[in-house]
Amino acid sequence: MSSLMLSRVAVCGGTHGNEMSGIYLVKELLKARKKVMEDEEEKPVSVMLVLSNPRAVQQCRRYIDTDLNRCFTHATLSGPMSDTTPYEIIRSRELNTMLGPKGSPGAVDLVCDLHNTTANMGLCLISYSDCDWICLQMPDVPLRYIHFDVSNKESYSLDSVGKHGFAMEIGPQPHGVVRSNVYTAMKAGVQHMLDWVSFFNSGTVFFCFATRFVDVFTMVKRFDYPRDSETHDITAAVHPQLQDRDFCLLHPEDPLFQTFSGETLRYKGKEPLYPFFINECAYYEKVQMIIVAYYNMAFKVHS
Amino acid sequence: MSSLMLSRVAVCGGTHGNEMSGIYLVKELLKARKKVMEDEEEKPVSVMLVLSNPRAVQQCRRYIDTDLNRCFTHATLSGPMSDTTPYEIIRSRELNTMLGPKGSPGAVDLVCDLHNTTANMGLCLISYSDCDWICLQMPDVPLRYIHFDVSNKESYSLDSVGKHGFAMEIGPQPHGVVRSNVYTAMKAGVQHMLDWVSFFNSGTVFFCFATRFVDVFTMVKRFDYPRDSETHDITAAVHPQLQDRDFCLLHPEDPLFQTFSGETLRYKGKEPLYPFFINECAYYEKVQMIIVAYYNMAFKVHS
Asked: Of A127, A80, A76, A81, which Cα lies nearest the Cα of A102?
């Protein structure tokens, strides 16, 4: 493994067309690249800059027909196509051709997909692997690492198309808005990742691994909002005592929701959990999830 | 004027279909009303509860074809109609029939239109009149009052359809999200307004007016984002030192924007201003405005 080079990296923004930091960052990097085009061929790492869902970006919506970041399962990528195939499914195949094909030797080495959330989550890396030494060793800036425990076949997000990949998720930022501090944090995060790739390729990274630890959160439970049984409208909001407290321990009987008539609903589980994606905008419609609660575990970096 | 009764009041939510506090509040009030329907006829004040733009609410978008809250000028309300008339123009006429007609004796006495903003504006009342004693006397909770200085003929928002009217604007709340604290503040604000209407109608309000003052902000200037001359994309975000500082004095040479390449752009005007609607999501597309800066004036309440 130590002979591996990360020679092809993709940085993607606008996979969700209303998550603005990544969109403006990719556009800015494209503009900067245009200026220094003549230097490009000398670089040992090829960085592809991708605006993933240009139609949704143009309309400043999460997606046009369906969530692009759920379209990268093997089943969806290889399913039948017709005149009525949703735009994002067509686009997922274009991206799979450009960055993959998923699971093939031709896929790019690393996909970094830029996202924002309305939740107060700071800077998080989200990946399907909790033993992918490339992703785990990357950060030496304060951040959290979130692990989605599904197989590569079932993995559904754009970053699963590369040989390695992760989503860089930063919040809080309202969708449709860019906050300068969030944009700047993302810019620094991407620069850090690219610097790390250069270090890695030069072979100078390995000596310090044995003592590095990373906090990893693995999903154990999802909560939905209380909903009206007829209309399916939510009937409560995240409780003010829980709002903005992502990654803070939620204990049994702690407030979870406040109904629109003012009643407090409490967490009835028996185990304490670390909630996150608290009040993420996109999860209102996903019916089955709103707060995703995880265990925290200190994780020794593999070397 | 003292013999006036405010016997017909309208509380409207969802004029913008992604401003969630007002939407859930109107739905909650409708639900509560259903439960106590039998008491309804005894009340001296008729409160109409209106979901202004149901299609946009259903899609959780600001609007379908065009901004409903710009459709209530006399010109738009009386313009020609055809098969291609935008949905919101059709809907504005329905609302004008229901709550107006604007400028007529048949119009409701007071329209309270509920809005949210991504800006850190707290609770604001926005109205076209700075000498409308009904609106100005209402608050005895901490809030700010914003005055749009245009004639009734040019006034374009839903609240202009009533004999009196104002928008209740609360933030910060991301569009598409409901924050419990913002919802609760709005619920208290509406209850306060309805209590005030009852007091007013009972004739017990007037004795305390002479000593009341209200801070009023009147528009003097609008700023647009710096934009790319070809694409019209914004090229800078609100500066981190200005972000969230609505109603805080902006001095000449204070930072205004930070470009996506990191440069600080400063306020070049000669007069200090009180900016607000700082980084309001909806103003990215409106090209000509983003930060609306106002003078503050202490305002003696008319009696």
From this structure: A76
The residue in chain B having the minimum alpha-carbon distance to the alpha carbon of residue A225 is B178
For the segment A181-194, what is each residue's pLDDT rounded down to a tens digit? 999 999 999 998 89
Is A45 or B86 the better-scoring residue by pLDDT?
A: B86
Q: Same structural domain for residues B197 and B234?
A: no
Answer yes or no: do B260 and A184 touch at CB < 8 A: no
Each residue of A96-114: pLDDT tens digit?
999 999 999 999 999 999 9
On the question of pLDDT at B40 being above 70, the answer is no
Assess whether B26 and B123 both reside in one domain: yes
Cα dist. A10→A28, A73, B205 in Å? 15, 19, 66
Instruction: Please judge whether A183 and B24 are an interchain contact, meaning their C-beta atoms are less than 8 angstroms apart.
Output: no
Partners of B146 in the β-ladder: B126, B217
- Identify whether residues B77 and B226 lie together within a single domain: no
CATH of the domain at A234: 2.20.25.160
B230 is in an annotated binding site: no
Say if residue B40 carries a ligand binding annotation: no
Residues of B in contact with A180 (CB under 8 A): 237-240, 243, 258
Flag if B261 and A183 touch (Cβ within 8 Å). Answer: no
Which among B24, B61, B179 has CB closest to A260?
B24
Report the complex ipTM.
0.89
Q: What percent of chain A has pLDDT over 70?
A: 82
Same domain, A206 and A228: no
Touching check for B24 and chain A: CB below 8 Å? yes
Say whether residue B58 is in contact with chain A using an 8 A CB cutoff.
no
Which structure tokens are listed for A241?
A: 């005592």
How many domains is chain A built from?
A: 2
- Tell whether residue B175 is among the known ligand binding residues: no
- The residue segments making up the domain with residue A267 are 221-293
- Judge contact between B175 and B119, C-beta under 8 A: no
Find how far residue B103's CA is from the centre of its chain. 19
pLDDT in tens, B175-191: 999 999 999 999 999 99
- The encoded tokens of residue B159 equal 């609240």
